[in-house]
Amino acid sequence: MKRKIWLSMLACMLVVMVVLSGCASKKDPKESVQAAMENALKMNSYELTGSLKINELSVNDPALEQDPAAGMVLNLLKNAEVNVSGVFQKDPMQMEMTLEVKLQGDMAITLSVPMVITEDKMWMKIPNIPMLGLPESMVDKFIEIDMKKLAEEQDADLNVGALDFTKSQELSQELTKVVLGGFDGKTFFSDVNVKEAGLPEGVDAKQVVKFDITDSNLEQAVTVFVKDVLPQILDLMSSDKYKDMFQLQQEEIDKLKKEISDEAELKKALEELKKAVKINQFSITTAVSKDDYPVYQDVNANLDITNEGTTVKLGLQASSQYSKINEKVEFKIGIPTDVITMEELEQQFNSFGM
């Protein structure tokens, strides 16, 4: 009898320990996203799918009626959709993706652009667009871009430091810490029930966190960004470690810091912003895996922007999903061999009078 009692007590204790360990693993929403974003930059390999769709786009401007070209572009962008799928590995650095662009309207068209990126080169396949009348010798070939060579030739506008992939990752990590660290956890971050988050099939998350900006906290968000976050970003950009990526002079940084520290100007800008921008929705939902990786992220934005009598209504949704994190990835395209260099491309265009 005593043995049964002890076994029952032990079983109860184990259940309590399991429950407590489950509670402990669920972090504060802000802390969870911070940890996930930092871990994302440490991923050695992954598969990626993503999309961007413009759900709403309208411009209330009589001038558009007098500009057929602008109207045509607006119609093309309405319900436009961009899809991306690809794989990445860090060492040796190689990434390939296929970018699919779908444009709607009277001239509806779907373009598929495969791309391959390594540490120092990029290849992009030329899509076959009938209306451009591209020569047969160019269709379905990859343009080879030597990024470091291009940077050296165009050093006035481009620099090798900006193409340093490792340094770019480190900068992204530090920027993520600065930006997320600036916003108050209780005001901008909240937990979402995993079962009610509407996650895509195959996304296994232990926690879902929502970052939300509304009309009620817009002023606080802008104030925090300008007064607390932006100065730290400027310090990073001008630091010895990263200054070669931006090529900014210290005088420029100091001038910007002085401008954003002006309380009167900030108050004036906030008043103008509240009049110009109405946030119907702006949220970023992040699904965090049991290994603290951001396996899914969804951005929803719906804004009304008014300027000089013109109102633009914009609604968009973007999402990204990571899978097979730190597993061996399979490259379907590989390093392209049927290529055309930038110099050859220019010669082809010239010979065909394009």
Short précis:
By secondary structure, the chain is an alpha+beta fold. 38% of the residues lie in helices and 31% in strands.
Structure description:
With 354 residues, this protein is α+β, with helices and mostly antiparallel strands. The chain is built from eleven helices and twelve strands. The protein has a twelve-stranded mixed beta sheet. Helix 2 (29-40) runs antiparallel to helix 5 (165-182), helix 5 (165-182) runs antiparallel to helix 7 and helix 7 (218-238) runs antiparallel to helix 9 (250-260). The longest helix is centred in the first third of the chain and has 24 residues, at 2-25. The N and C termini lie far apart (94 Å).
User: How many separate structural domains?
Assistant: 1
Please describe the biggest sheet, giving its number of strands, its sense, and whether it closes into a barrel: 12 strands, mixed
Give the strand order, joined by hyphens, for the main sheet. 7-8-9-10-11-1-2-3-4-5-6-12
- What does the overall shape look like? globular
Number of helices: 11
| SS strand fraction | 25-35%
Mind telling me the C-alpha Rg? 25 Å
Helix content: 25-40%
User: Regions with pLDDT < 50 over 5+ consecutive residues?
Assistant: 1-25
Integer average pLDDT: 81
Order of helices and strands: HHEHEEEEEHHHEEHHHHEEEEH
Number of strands: 12
**Subunit arrangement of the protein:** single chain
Give the termini separation.
94 Å
Structural class: alpha+beta
